Amino acid sequence: MARCTAPTYGHRTSSGRDACPACGGSSSRYSSYNNYDNYRSSYSTSSYSSSRNSSSGSRSIKPRWSRASSPIYYTPAEVTALTPIRQTVESLATTKPDLRDVFLCHAWDDRQGAAKDLHDLLVSNGVSVWFSEKDVGLGVPLMRAIDKGLANSKIGLVLVTPAFLLRLPNEGIADKELSALLARDQLVPIVHKTTFEALREISPLLGSRSGLNTAEEPMKDVAAKLAELVMIHQAVP
Fold it and tell me: What is each CA distance from 223 to 19, 26, 52, 69, in whole angstroms?
Protein backbone atom coordinates (compact mmCIF):
# COMPACT_ATOMS: atom_id res chain seq x y z
CA MET A 1 0.00 0.00 0.00
CA ALA A 2 1.35 3.47 -0.89
CA ARG A 3 2.77 5.44 2.01
CA CYS A 4 1.98 9.09 2.66
CA THR A 5 4.93 11.44 2.02
CA ALA A 6 3.62 14.21 4.31
CA PRO A 7 6.09 13.44 7.14
CA THR A 8 9.01 13.98 4.70
CA TYR A 9 7.86 16.42 2.03
CA GLY A 10 4.78 17.95 3.57
CA HIS A 11 1.48 18.81 1.90
CA ARG A 12 1.75 22.58 2.13
CA THR A 13 0.85 22.98 -1.56
CA SER A 14 -1.66 21.31 -3.85
CA SER A 15 1.18 20.02 -6.03
CA GLY A 16 2.84 18.45 -3.02
CA ARG A 17 -0.38 16.70 -2.12
CA ASP A 18 -0.92 15.56 -5.73
CA ALA A 19 2.60 14.10 -5.84
CA CYS A 20 1.97 11.96 -2.80
CA PRO A 21 1.28 8.34 -3.84
CA ALA A 22 -1.16 7.93 -0.94
CA CYS A 23 -2.98 11.26 -0.99
CA GLY A 24 -2.60 12.43 -4.60
CA GLY A 25 -5.10 12.09 -7.39
CA SER A 26 -8.64 13.18 -7.92
CA SER A 27 -10.09 10.25 -6.00
CA SER A 28 -8.19 11.31 -2.88
CA ARG A 29 -9.40 14.87 -3.21
CA TYR A 30 -12.97 13.75 -3.56
CA SER A 31 -12.46 11.50 -0.57
CA SER A 32 -11.28 14.50 1.41
CA TYR A 33 -14.35 16.47 0.37
CA ASN A 34 -16.56 13.55 1.34
CA ASN A 35 -14.85 13.28 4.71
CA TYR A 36 -15.41 17.00 5.25
CA ASP A 37 -19.06 16.66 4.28
CA ASN A 38 -19.43 13.73 6.66
CA TYR A 39 -17.77 15.73 9.44
CA ARG A 40 -19.97 18.75 8.77
CA SER A 41 -23.06 16.59 8.75
CA SER A 42 -21.96 14.86 11.95
CA TYR A 43 -21.21 18.19 13.61
CA SER A 44 -24.58 19.65 12.59
CA THR A 45 -26.42 16.59 13.88
CA SER A 46 -24.45 16.68 17.11
CA SER A 47 -25.16 20.38 17.58
CA TYR A 48 -28.85 19.84 16.90
CA SER A 49 -28.98 16.97 19.35
CA SER A 50 -27.20 19.05 21.97
CA SER A 51 -29.63 21.89 21.39
CA ARG A 52 -32.55 19.55 21.79
CA ASN A 53 -31.07 18.07 24.93
CA SER A 54 -30.36 21.47 26.44
CA SER A 55 -33.95 22.48 25.80
CA SER A 56 -35.22 19.57 27.93
CA GLY A 57 -35.27 22.03 30.83
CA SER A 58 -37.08 24.71 28.81
CA ARG A 59 -40.58 25.89 29.57
CA SER A 60 -42.48 23.45 27.45
CA ILE A 61 -45.04 21.72 29.69
CA LYS A 62 -48.10 22.56 31.75
CA PRO A 63 -48.97 21.12 35.17
CA ARG A 64 -52.33 19.52 35.81
CA TRP A 65 -53.62 22.66 37.58
CA SER A 66 -53.04 24.86 34.52
CA ARG A 67 -55.91 25.40 32.13
CA ALA A 68 -55.45 24.37 28.52
CA SER A 69 -56.03 27.98 27.45
CA SER A 70 -53.28 29.31 29.74
CA PRO A 71 -50.30 30.86 27.92
CA ILE A 72 -47.98 29.95 30.80
CA TYR A 73 -45.49 27.10 30.44
CA TYR A 74 -43.18 25.50 33.01
CA THR A 75 -39.96 23.55 33.13
CA PRO A 76 -40.15 19.95 34.35
CA ALA A 77 -38.17 20.98 37.45
CA GLU A 78 -40.69 23.72 38.25
CA VAL A 79 -43.60 21.30 38.00
CA THR A 80 -41.81 18.83 40.27
CA ALA A 81 -41.08 21.53 42.85
CA LEU A 82 -44.53 23.13 42.79
CA THR A 83 -46.71 20.00 42.75
CA PRO A 84 -46.47 19.36 46.55
CA ILE A 85 -47.29 23.03 47.17
CA ARG A 86 -50.33 22.74 44.91
CA GLN A 87 -51.47 19.65 46.82
CA THR A 88 -51.30 21.66 50.06
CA VAL A 89 -53.30 24.48 48.47
CA GLU A 90 -56.01 22.07 47.29
CA SER A 91 -56.24 20.44 50.71
CA LEU A 92 -56.49 23.74 52.58
CA ALA A 93 -59.00 25.11 50.09
CA THR A 94 -61.35 22.35 51.23
CA THR A 95 -60.67 22.42 54.97
CA LYS A 96 -59.89 26.13 55.46
CA PRO A 97 -61.39 28.07 52.57
CA ASP A 98 -61.07 31.49 54.28
CA LEU A 99 -57.27 31.51 54.38
CA ARG A 100 -55.26 34.06 52.43
CA ASP A 101 -53.61 32.60 49.36
CA VAL A 102 -50.04 33.55 50.28
CA PHE A 103 -47.91 35.09 53.00
CA LEU A 104 -45.14 37.25 51.54
CA CYS A 105 -41.87 37.12 53.49
CA HIS A 106 -39.32 39.77 52.51
CA ALA A 107 -36.52 41.95 53.78
CA TRP A 108 -37.46 45.27 55.35
CA ASP A 109 -35.38 47.09 52.74
CA ASP A 110 -37.53 45.65 49.93
CA ARG A 111 -40.89 46.72 51.35
CA GLN A 112 -41.21 49.68 48.97
CA GLY A 113 -39.32 48.05 46.09
CA ALA A 114 -39.23 44.45 44.89
CA ALA A 115 -41.62 43.17 47.58
CA LYS A 116 -44.24 45.77 46.72
CA ASP A 117 -43.79 45.03 43.01
CA LEU A 118 -44.40 41.32 43.60
CA HIS A 119 -47.35 42.05 45.90
CA ASP A 120 -48.99 44.32 43.33
CA LEU A 121 -48.49 41.82 40.51
CA LEU A 122 -50.00 39.01 42.59
CA VAL A 123 -53.00 41.12 43.54
CA SER A 124 -53.53 42.10 39.90
CA ASN A 125 -53.72 38.37 39.16
CA GLY A 126 -56.42 37.86 41.78
CA VAL A 127 -54.22 36.49 44.58
CA SER A 128 -54.94 37.43 48.20
CA VAL A 129 -51.62 38.34 49.84
CA TRP A 130 -50.60 38.94 53.46
CA PHE A 131 -48.15 41.81 53.16
CA SER A 132 -46.74 43.60 56.19
CA GLU A 133 -46.89 47.02 54.55
CA LYS A 134 -50.63 46.60 54.13
CA ASP A 135 -51.66 44.29 56.95
CA VAL A 136 -49.81 45.62 60.00
CA GLY A 137 -51.59 48.67 61.35
CA LEU A 138 -50.17 51.41 63.55
CA GLY A 139 -49.72 50.29 67.14
CA VAL A 140 -50.16 46.58 66.30
CA PRO A 141 -47.32 44.40 67.67
CA LEU A 142 -45.42 43.30 64.59
CA MET A 143 -44.55 39.76 65.67
CA ARG A 144 -48.12 39.06 66.76
CA ALA A 145 -49.41 40.30 63.40
CA ILE A 146 -46.87 38.14 61.57
CA ASP A 147 -47.84 35.05 63.57
CA LYS A 148 -51.46 35.67 62.70
CA GLY A 149 -50.61 36.22 59.04
CA LEU A 150 -48.64 32.98 58.87
CA ALA A 151 -51.43 31.01 60.51
CA ASN A 152 -54.01 32.42 58.12
CA SER A 153 -52.23 31.85 54.81
CA LYS A 154 -52.14 28.73 52.65
CA ILE A 155 -48.50 28.98 51.64
CA GLY A 156 -45.51 31.24 52.08
CA LEU A 157 -43.43 33.07 49.50
CA VAL A 158 -39.91 34.14 50.38
CA LEU A 159 -38.54 36.94 48.23
CA VAL A 160 -34.80 36.32 48.22
CA THR A 161 -32.90 39.48 47.31
CA PRO A 162 -29.42 40.80 48.12
CA ALA A 163 -31.00 42.74 51.00
CA PHE A 164 -32.65 39.57 52.30
CA LEU A 165 -29.33 37.70 52.22
CA LEU A 166 -27.63 40.50 54.15
CA ARG A 167 -30.26 40.57 56.89
CA LEU A 168 -30.89 36.84 57.23
CA PRO A 169 -27.79 36.02 59.35
CA ASN A 170 -28.79 38.73 61.86
CA GLU A 171 -31.81 36.69 62.99
CA GLY A 172 -34.29 39.47 62.51
CA ILE A 173 -37.99 39.33 61.73
CA ALA A 174 -37.43 37.81 58.28
CA ASP A 175 -35.49 34.98 59.91
CA LYS A 176 -38.37 34.26 62.31
CA GLU A 177 -40.88 34.27 59.46
CA LEU A 178 -38.66 31.95 57.46
CA SER A 179 -38.27 29.50 60.35
CA ALA A 180 -42.03 29.24 60.70
CA LEU A 181 -42.52 28.74 56.96
CA LEU A 182 -39.79 26.10 56.74
CA ALA A 183 -41.38 24.19 59.60
CA ARG A 184 -44.66 24.02 57.69
CA ASP A 185 -43.02 22.85 54.47
CA GLN A 186 -45.29 25.15 52.44
CA LEU A 187 -42.72 27.47 51.01
CA VAL A 188 -41.74 28.80 47.58
CA PRO A 189 -38.51 30.82 47.27
CA ILE A 190 -38.53 33.61 44.69
CA VAL A 191 -34.95 34.56 43.82
CA HIS A 192 -34.57 38.14 42.59
CA LYS A 193 -31.29 39.82 41.57
CA THR A 194 -29.24 37.10 43.26
CA THR A 195 -28.77 33.34 42.84
CA PHE A 196 -29.70 30.09 44.51
CA GLU A 197 -25.98 29.47 44.98
CA ALA A 198 -25.67 32.65 47.05
CA LEU A 199 -28.75 31.63 49.02
CA ARG A 200 -27.31 28.20 49.83
CA GLU A 201 -24.22 29.85 51.31
CA ILE A 202 -26.41 31.72 53.80
CA SER A 203 -29.22 29.22 54.33
CA PRO A 204 -28.57 25.70 53.06
CA LEU A 205 -32.04 24.59 54.16
CA LEU A 206 -33.87 27.29 52.23
CA GLY A 207 -31.41 27.00 49.35
CA SER A 208 -32.25 23.32 49.01
CA ARG A 209 -35.81 24.24 48.04
CA SER A 210 -36.63 24.69 44.39
CA GLY A 211 -38.48 27.83 43.43
CA LEU A 212 -38.72 30.52 40.78
CA ASN A 213 -36.08 32.94 39.54
CA THR A 214 -36.62 36.38 38.02
CA ALA A 215 -33.30 36.03 36.18
CA GLU A 216 -34.95 33.36 34.03
CA GLU A 217 -38.28 35.08 33.46
CA PRO A 218 -39.78 38.49 34.31
CA MET A 219 -41.38 39.02 37.70
CA LYS A 220 -44.78 39.43 36.03
CA ASP A 221 -44.45 35.87 34.66
CA VAL A 222 -43.39 34.60 38.08
CA ALA A 223 -46.47 36.24 39.59
CA ALA A 224 -48.69 34.67 36.93
CA LYS A 225 -47.31 31.21 37.77
CA LEU A 226 -47.89 31.79 41.46
CA ALA A 227 -51.46 32.85 40.71
CA GLU A 228 -52.09 29.61 38.85
CA LEU A 229 -50.52 27.71 41.73
CA VAL A 230 -52.79 29.06 44.47
CA MET A 231 -56.07 29.79 42.75
CA ILE A 232 -58.34 26.76 42.75
CA HIS A 233 -60.58 28.02 39.96
CA GLN A 234 -57.54 27.71 37.68
CA ALA A 235 -57.51 23.94 38.05
CA VAL A 236 -58.36 21.71 35.11
CA PRO A 237 -61.67 19.88 35.81
Answer: 70, 65, 28, 18
CA distances from 130 to 37, 63, 159, 190 (A): 63, 26, 13, 16
β-strand 129-130 against 153-160: which pairing, if any?
A: unpaired
How many whole angstroms separate alpha carbon 225 and alpha carbon 73?
Answer: 9
Q: Taking the chain (237 residues) in consecutive chunks of 10 residues, what is each chunk's mean pLDDT?
A: 51 53 47 40 34 50 92 94 94 93 93 97 97 84 82 93 89 72 84 96 89 96 97 59
Amino acid, res. 219: M
Determine the Cα–Cα distance for residues 79 and 92; give it in Å rounded to an integer.
20
Rounded to whole angstroms, how far apart are CA atoms 35 and 23? Answer: 13
CA distances from 68 to 82, 84, 225, 231 (A): 18, 21, 14, 15
Distances (CA, A) of 92 to 82, 114, 213, 234: 15, 28, 26, 15
| Residue partners of 188: CB distance under 8 A and separation at least 6 | 81, 82, 85, 155, 156, 157, 158, 209, 211, 212, 226, 229
